Amino acid sequence: MRRAGLFSRARRPRAAGMRRSVRRLCLCLAVTLSLCAVMIWVRVGPLVRSYGEEMFYHLIVPGWVRWLLEPAPLIVTPREGFEPTTANDGGGALPTGVERWGDHLITRVSATPNVTLVHDFMTSEECAFVRALGRKMGMVSGTRFPVTNGVVDASAAGLYNYVYGLVRTSVGEYVDYKSLDDGDLARMVAIAKKVEAVTGLAVGNSEAPFVQHYEPSARFRAHYDMYNVDVTKPFPYRDNPRSLTLLAYLNDVGDGGGGETEFMLAKPRPVRVKAAEGAALIWGNCELEDVAPVDVGSGFKVNPSAGGGGGPKWDEGRCMGGAGPHGEVANSPGAMPGERTQWPCCVDRTRASLHQSRPVRKGHEKWTMTMWMHQRFTSESQVYAEELGYSRELAELVTS
User: Fold this and answer.
1) How many domains in the chain?
2) Can you cite an annotated GO cellular component (predicted)?
3) Which domain holds residue 118?
């Protein structure tokens, strides 16, 4: 007698029932995954819309995909081919693209986004001082996500905190001016005043210096410095956004050590800047309002090409300028090459300012100090008014 095969008449009903069960299981799985996706999108969607798809693309896509699809990056090495001390003493011609500006030597790295490299921003002694200060501060990883509205509730903030912990794996902490002794305070404020001079913005516009330490494999994945916490209101709303960033390198990472600062959306190709002790990067985070360039002392002008009765006027000291109109309190020797002498108001985030710190490789470490400059005085200018040399009344006036 022949045995019944898998598809014999006797087994066909059983096989049909198994197929129906598999279909039901697949349907249930698809519905469950769809519901999960919807729930995640409800939480993450506002963040995606606020920050843009480009950031999430660079957060998720593997490096080998970018290697295949994107042009090779421009590699920039600070002080390559010259020594700033020799160049400033007239001991040699400057390489192409390097200019003297005030007390520093600079290179315009990119126009889109607007990135400038200062080859000799800090001395070795200043870098060693800030590194030692960082070791004493007890730096931590991640950050607490601020809850400011009903959309970003406590559970969503927990999710964002978790995600941010994956984005930034370095450790860091803000410098508390009030905790420093007189000697350390004087040295730290002197460095902050150098930031004021090189950016043209009063130090009161800045958050306190943020010191970071990257151990091997640590990184800071794709992100914007200008953030929008309150996604229920138009950006940049009235939140005195981070308009300019200064990132100072406090040590040499060395060849093959990684840790480059990369601007993935720079035009015409991505830009990677190697970490070199004493060098600093300055870049803009803002799309500025459409107004005509204005020279200091020439008064307010309007752009006739803009609509609405001559176009928008310069903001009367309420944007980037601290205590005086358009930054006149800063000790800047002048506008940086290609920059306006005065700053108009920020109206949106510059998408091209998306950047990351690439992973530091085994056997290396990286130290940085960041100062985020806002359009006007920050609330910290009230807290540290005495330490920074501002009266509290002045700080309260310009932050109100």
Assistant:
1) 2
2) endoplasmic reticulum
3) 53-153+168-399
